[in-house]
Amino acid sequence: MELNSTPVRTCKNYNINDIEFSEKIPNKFKKFENLKIFKDTEKDEVITDFKFKDFDIKYGTGLIDQIKNSSNQNIRVNVNSKTNKDIKLEFDFDEKNLELVENIEINIEPETTSNIYIIYRQRTSGKAFHNGLIRVLSKSNSKSIITIVNLMNPESSNVLSIDGKLEDGSKLKYNIVDFGGKTSITNLYTNLLGKESQNLINSIYLGSNDEKIDINYIAECFGEKTKIDIDVQGALKDNAKKSFKGTIDFKKGCKKAYGNEAENCMLLSDKAKSIALPMLLCSEEDVEGNHSSSSGKANDKELFYIMTRGFDRKSAEKLLVRAKFNNILEGITNKEVKGEILYEMDQKLD
Amino acid sequence: MAKTKIDDINRNIYDFKNKDDYDYKIKKGLTREIIEEISKQKNDPDWMREFRLKALEVYNKLEMPTWGPDLSELNMDEIATYVRPKGKMASNWEDVPDEIKNTFDKLGIPDAEKTSLAGVGAQYDSEVVYHSMKDDLIKQGVIYTDMETAVREYPDLVKEHFMKCVPVYDHKFVALHGAVWSGGSFVYVPKGVKLDFPLQSYFRLNSPESGQFEHTLIIVEEGASLHFIEGCSAPKYNKVNLHAGCVELYVKDNAYLRYSTIENWSKNMLNLNTKKALIGKNAQVDWVSGSFGSKISMLYPMSVLNGEGAKTEYTGISFAGAGQNLDTGFKVVHNAPNTSSVVNSKSISKNGGKCTYRSLVRIMENAKNSKSSVSCESLMLDDFSISDTIPTNDIRTDDVEFSHEAKIGKISDKTIFYLMSRGLSEEDAKAMIVRGFAYPISKELPVEYAVEMNNLINLELEGSIG
Could you list the residue range(s) of the whole structural domain that residue B59 is in? Predict the structure, then answer.
């Protein structure tokens, strides 16, 4: 089955329009029990077993119907606090909880601030399946950071759709950490509808062994003076393969909008493969759009410099990867979450 | 604040029509019988007739592209794929029928031949009507002739190379080309021969509801050097015309080829051309491409860097006005160590025109220590035009340096302000910015085309941006 399709097609022979997903997809799920919820203030609400009305999303990975019909976790988060408190949802896969199909709705009220963490963690062995949807409504003048961390084991499949809408003056930042799964597919759509709304997407990924990472970020600017900034940093070792598809679409009327997209992949093996399709689509004259993409091995001079300070090559490479990831890591204020990410990064690069 | 207006290309010099007066025109459509008839009309050898029929089979099996511009208005049942003009191929302009000669006079081809070219080929509809080259090049063993003559006189050379670089199963319109090709140029530059002046082939399609399917095959042997210029134009008709040419370039070790194209088809033309170069050790191919005409273009020249140390550069500009959808770009495959590629693409869209830059950079596992740098910039001159950038970067090994950057936007107010603070008027400032934008490309064009391109960036002030 073909998933994670690009909004605009390019030549079929380039093998980037979709990812072929050949894993068997289960169709019946028992309740996923290992969900932990933390929140620092009573004002914010996290409602589980939420009954959703039918909805449509514009893109998604291609497995949205399964979520609509068979989800085994339905959660609604209402952000009401103006004091930038943490809300944390932790999904822990284990031998008894190997399948998660969840539907999360995040409703960020006007003028509020929040810091939301969603963590998919698997410390046990066993092949797990995750298909999730996170829908975000960022209302006027709100400020939010949503950090999504995938730490599933290397046998599992991770499929995640994120669909966000930003109203006037809202500022939304995504931190996306994609370290887990044999196959990890992420689709993120952001609709910058409101005037002067801003969306920053910071994303890091790490691939090893035969892992496949497929990333598809789509940003549509409708509102005037909107701003979208996509920064994707990654490293691949062994035979890992990454496809990055990034689209910034300036729609007619989004005057003075600004879009920037940067993707950089560090290749730590001569067998690793990086393919990228950074698209800029423009139907409005009065905008500024840039994108850049680069790939290559670790810089020899930088490696040499670090090694002259007593580090072996592997440690030096780790330091360089860490330096690349630092921008996003610095933005993760929760020390526990940050510590866990650093630990996983260290393990994966060993 | 005043608004920049950039004129459309002055098409008066291209849009004149001659009477649809031909020696032979095949009936419209695409069937086995039609292909056999074309083959008979052209006196093909058996192998070529078989080749055409096989290509037709491939064409019928392949699907239309599922990406890019909408080609639904193309109906092969409405296209005559072979039109033989009056007269025989000549090597003296005086022997070319008057009406056809006048056409090329207006396009300035005989004048250019006298002043700055080593040889000229001129095709009118489906056949080459004129071919000539300087005597000293003939003495050095250079071959420059039409493809039909090459098939007859150099069968081994043609058989070895014809549609081997661009196989018929590459895509549907290459298969179509293989079935109905006619005309085009064959160039062979022997080992070590370096041409000081360019060769130029000019392709003119006059007949309405027809297609042009010329085949260009160039072989540059070891250590040789060539600059080849290709120009094309057609008058405008109400119904669709089709251009599906094919260019195959074989550039052997240490050789150099510069391939310049100025495409100025009329705005009823679907331009679905295919160009590809196979490049040997330490050899280099530079592409210079200007796309100004056609209703729809899908044009992505390709370099395959097969030899160690091979290089390629692509410098291209597209200018899409009202009703035009120009989907252009470049493809490069690094297939050997120490190879390098540089891509520099610019586009200007106005009056509702659409420019798309679509590309592929693929660095294969064996292409260690290769470098690739891609830059594309798009300028939009009004708020109802469209400009898209769709690059694919496929990196399959670690020991590479790859970078891609793209920019999209309008003329910067800050830059205008800066230039005005230095004493320029606003209109001069804008003219300077647009010319500066196009300059990296225009400086690479043959001089007469560069002048033409600069003329089209004819700025005046009008209205207001608000």
Answer: 12-299
